[in-house]
Write a structure and sequence with these properties.
The protein is of the alpha+beta class and 286 residues long. The longest helix has 25 residues. The protein contains seven helices and eleven strands. A hairpin with a 2-residue loop joins strand 8 and strand 9. It has two domains: 115 residues, Aminopeptidase, CATH 3.40.630; 159 residues, 3-Layer(aba) Sandwich (Aminopeptidase), CATH 3.40.630.30. The protein is globular, with a radius of gyration of 19 Å.
């Protein structure tokens, strides 16, 4: 059983920081009129992908030592210069000075997100529950036909972006900023995009980024008409096998506590490593 110590946390937080830097690079290419930025701050990074982006936040702070309040002031100024609130996703194993500094400067807790890990060293994927019993394969009943789950062809990346955005919005037309984020994710050359098809139609999507022996699963999305039918688990299992085939020793993903995604992750063997705490500071004038 993997132990969520400081060494593991530093490894994972550094990968998140690297991913944020890549997102900014891709965003500047895909949307040259959007002032995408990613700055280094307090041993972490702060990302800005345009107004309303779901990943406008700082992460990885305080993982290698104390955080100076001047760095927090610089972080606040970065987001306030864009006319936006500031957000920090903090690892609970970060240096305590980060907690203390955020508190002194008037930040408040606004959200939580679990980070899950799965060792890929052997056995079947999703091989069991905590008490050692084997978990059932995802049910594919009543879908009409079994889904085809495979890596997207180059010409299918746009379809992946649309599926990811629509599924995240419950099938309703997504807001432009979320469509843009889906396109940014789809344009990353290092990302392996996986999609589930039912009767020739897109049903669900997910991405895999391999870095430093870790397979990072993100972008999970299932269209409403295909939910509760094992689509997400099928996409998860396909990415986990790809990560294992690539030699990864660890798979990682994130989800909001208590939701359907958490249950699906636990069914294929993921376990909570730690929980990110999101802190917020209102934009100037609020």
């Amino acid at each position: 059983m993997i132990h969520a110590d400081h060494a593991l946390a530093r490894r994972l937080e550094s990968l998140i920081c690297a991913e944020f830097r890549r997102l900014a690079e891709v965003a500047r290419i895909v949307f040259p009129n959007v002032p995408a930025e990613c700055i280094d701050v307090a041993d972490g990074v702060a990302l800005w992908l345009g107004e309303g982006s779901p990943v406008n936040l700082a992460t990885g702070l305080g993982m290698r030592g104390p955080v100076d309040e001047m760095e927090l002031a610089r972080l606040e100024a970065f987001y306030h210069a864009h006319g936006a609130a500031a957000f920090v996703s903090m690892c609970p194993l970060a240096d305590h000075s980060l907690f203390q500094g955020l508190g002194r400067r008037g930040w408040w807790v606004s959200e939580f997100e679990h980070l899950f890990v799965l060792e890929l060293g052997g056995g079947s994927l999703g091989g069991g529950s905590p008490d050692g019993r084997r978990l059932p394969e995802p049910s594919l009943l009543d879908i009409g036909s079994e889904p085809e789950v495979r890596v997207c062809l180059p010409e299918e990346r746009d379809a992946w972006a649309r599926t990811e955005a629509r599924g995240s919005f419950g099938g309703a037309p997504p807001e432009p900023v979320h469509e843009e984020f889906g396109r940014i994710m789809a344009e990353r050359e290092e990302a392996i995009l996986v999609m589930a098809w039912v009767d020739g139609e897109p049903a669900g999507a997910g991405s895999l980024v391999i870095d430093g022996g870790v397979g990072w699963l993100s972008g999970d999305s299932t269209l409403p008409q295909y939910r509760r039918r094992g689509i997400q688990q099928a996409v998860q299992r396909r990415r986990l096998q790809l990560a294992r085939d690539a030699g990864c020793d660890l798979a990682v993903t994130e989800a909001t506590p208590g939701g359907t995604s958490q249950r699906n992750m636990e069914r294929v063997g993921f376990r909570i490593a730690y929980t990110h705490v999101e802190f917020t500071k209102a934009k100037l004038g609020e």
